[in-house]
Fold these 4 entries.
Entry 1:
Amino acid sequence: MLEGLPFEPWGSPEIRPLALGLFTLVGIWALQAGFERESTRWMWAWQKPRKLTLRNAAETPRTLGVVLSHVVASTGLASGLAWLPLEWGTQRMLAHAALWMLVGQAMKWGGARLAFEDRDLASTMTEMNRHGNTWTAMALGAWSVIAAIQPTLSHAPWSKWIASGMFILAMTVHAIRTSTLLPKAGKNRLFGILYLCTLEWGWVALWTTWSIATSLKGH
C-alpha cells in the first residue's frame, strides 16, 4: 500500500522541524502539567507582568521546572531555525539555539543587577527573559508542527518568512511587556532605560536583522 512513497530521512525539511516542534509542545505540556508555579508565572509574564514582582516563597519556581523551560526554549528556537536556508545539521541548530538562550539569559542577568538596585526587580527582569523564550518557543514549535504536516506550507518558499516573522513578533511582544516593569520614578530609572534600550530592544533589533538577512539568503 505504501510502496513507491518517498522516504523522508531525518534532517529533511519536513521531518526535522516536525520532530523539534512536537518535542517543544510536549515540553510545554509537561511544564504546565508538572510545574504549576513555573507555568503560572510563565502565563503572568505576558498577561500580568507586574504580578511577577510580588514574589513569595510559595511562588518560587522549582529548579527542574526552570531547567525544562530552558530546554523547551532551545528546541523551539531550533524548530524555527529548521525553516531557514541554513546548511546546519540538527545538532548544530540545537547547539546554536541553546547558546543563544544561555548567552541572552546571562547578559540580562548581569545587566539587570547593574541597572537595578531593587534585587526583586532585577530577578523579575531575568525571569521575564526566560518566560519570553518559552513563549517564543511555543509559537515556533506550533508553527513547525502545522507547517510540517501541511505540504503546501512545508514546500512553500515563504515558509521561512513566516518562521522569521513569528520569531520577531514574539520577541517584540516580550520587549513591550518587559518595558512595562520599568519604575515610573526613582534614581534607577535612567539605568533601567539603558537596560531596556540595550538588552531588550537592542536584542530585538540585533536578532531581527539576523533573521531577515538569513531569510534573504539564496535570493
Entry 2:
Amino acid sequence: MSDPSDGQRLLLTALFAAWVIAFGYAFYAFATTIPGGGGFVRGMNRVTAYLGWQGIAGMVSIALFAIGRGWPKGGAVRRMAVVPLAVAMLHVVAILGIILWARATI
C-alpha cells in the first residue's frame, strides 16, 4: 500500500476540523438557543439544533472513516479516524437508550 497523497492528507485534516467544529457547535447551539413556543413543545428548538449539528458531525465522521481507510493498517491515523464514528454511534445508542427508558417509565 502506498503512502497517502498530500491531497488526501489535506482532506483528512479538513474533515477532522469540520467534525470538531460541528461537534462542538452542537453544544453551543443547545446552550444559546432561546426556547420558543409554548406548552408541550417549549424548548424543542434547542433539541433540534443540537441533533441537527450532531447529525452533520455524524455525516462528517462517516467521511472521515472512509478516508482513514486509505492509511496503512495499524497506523495511528487509521485508528484515529475511527474515533469520530465511534462517538457518533455512542450518541445514537445514548439517545435510543433515553427514549426507551422514557417509554418504560410511563
Entry 3:
Amino acid sequence: MAIQEYLDTHHVFSAADFSEAFPDSRTDQNLLTRATASGRVDHPRRGLYVSKTGPYSRIHANPLDVASKACEDAVFCFLTALQLHGVLHNITQRTQFYTAHRIAPFAYAGQEFTSVRRPDRPIASQGLLSPTGHRYQVTTTEQTLVDCLDKPNLAGGPENLLRSVGGFRYLNVDDLVRIAKNYSASLRARLGWVLETQADDWDIGDDVLSRVAESLGSGPYYFYSSKTPRDSHWSNRWKLYLPFPEQEMMSWLDE
C-alpha cells in the first residue's frame, strides 16, 4: 500500500499502526515525516497522527478516536461517559479516559484530552457503538454515577453533576450498591442522598436506602469540599454537608 492511499483511508492512527502497515520501511517513515512537516498530517502528541488529506481534508477527527489511538486501553469516564450516555448537561471540550498508562494531558483541535489513572479496584465498563460504527469502551451508567460522586470536580462540579445524572432513566441498583462497597463512606453518603432524592424516578426501595445508610460511619461527610469555604448545609440522615441548600440541589436532579 502506498503511503498516500494509507493517509486517504486512515483518519487517526498510531505510530504502531503505521509501522504495522509499512514494516521496516525507512522510506515510508521519511514520507510520513515530510507529510507532517507539510501539514498534510497532524501530530497531536508522540506516537499519534491525524490525516488531513483526501476525504479528511475538511473534517475534524472524532475526539474519541484520537483518545483511543493515543491510549489503546482507554475507557471513557466522567464528563465523556456522561456525554456518551446522553445525559451531559453542559457542553464540554474535554475528553476524559481511564488508562493504566501515564499519559500527559494534551490538546488538539480545540479539545483537551485528560487521562485518569485507572484505579486498582475493578471498574465496570461496556462497549458503546457509535453512529459511525466505531465501538468505544465507556464506564457503565452505575460506574459513571459512582465515579462522578466520588470526584465531583472531574464531573464539572456539583451542579453539572446533578443536572447530568438526573437524566439517567434506569440504574441497576444491585450493581450500583456492589460498586459503591469498594469506595469510601463519604461516597456512599453522597450516593445515599442522591438515591433518596431520586427514589421515585429510579424505583429505589427503602431497603436499598437503609442498606446504604447502615454502611456509613459516624460522619460527618462532605458532598464537595471539607476545606474552607466548606460545605455547610446539613442533611441529617446521610450525615452529609451539602455545598448548596438542599432544595436547590434537589431541583437540579429533577430538571
Entry 4:
Amino acid sequence: MKLRACLASLLLAASTMMAVEIDAETFLKSLDGAKVLKGRAMEYELSGASYRTYQPEVSPSPDGGLFVSLRIDHMRGFLASDDHASLEVTISPDGAIVAAQSSIALQGITISSDLIKGTAAASTTVTTPYVDRAVKIGTDLVADLSSKLLREKIVEPGRVSFPAAIRHNYNLLFQSVKKAEVTVRPADAPKPVAAPEVKPFQPNQPAVPPKK
C-alpha cells in the first residue's frame, strides 16, 4: 500500500528538465547592423558587401532538439536583383550542432552544399562543449559551397564572399543556442466517477386487496 502511494506521488509531482532554444533577439543584435522589417531582420556589411539576415525559423524535432532555418540576402543595389541563401542547422537536445546544409540562389544558378554532419566526439573543453564539432561542420560547409561557387566562375565580390557571410551567420547562430529549465507538470488526474446507487433486492410483495 505504501509503495503504491509513493508511486502515485512521483507521478503527480512536477518535474524539471533541460530544453534547448534559440535566442533570436540576441542573434540579430550580434550581427551589428540596422534592424528592418519591424525588427524581424538585420542589414549589415561584410567585406564591403551588404547583406540582410532574417529572424530564424525554429521548429522542435521529434528527439527534443531543434531544426533552425535561416534566410540570408545579398543586397546588390537598386538596379540589380538580390541573391538569396538558406542555412539549415540541426541541433541535438543537449545543444550540439549535429548537421548543417546551405544553398545559394543567384540569377539562374542554384548552388547547394552537401549535408554536413559532425562526428560523435564532443569537445574536451568543459566550458564550451561541442565547439570542435561545430567548427568542423562550419568549415566543411563553407569549403563545399566555395568550391562549387568557384566552378561556376562567379567573380562579383559580394557573391564570392557569400559563403563567408553564411559562415558568419552560422557562428553567431551557434552562440545563440541556450539551455533553459522547463517545468513539466502532469495532466490533471481524472475525477472519480460516483458508483450508481444499488438498492437492495426486494421480492415482489403480494397485492393487498382493497378494503371494502
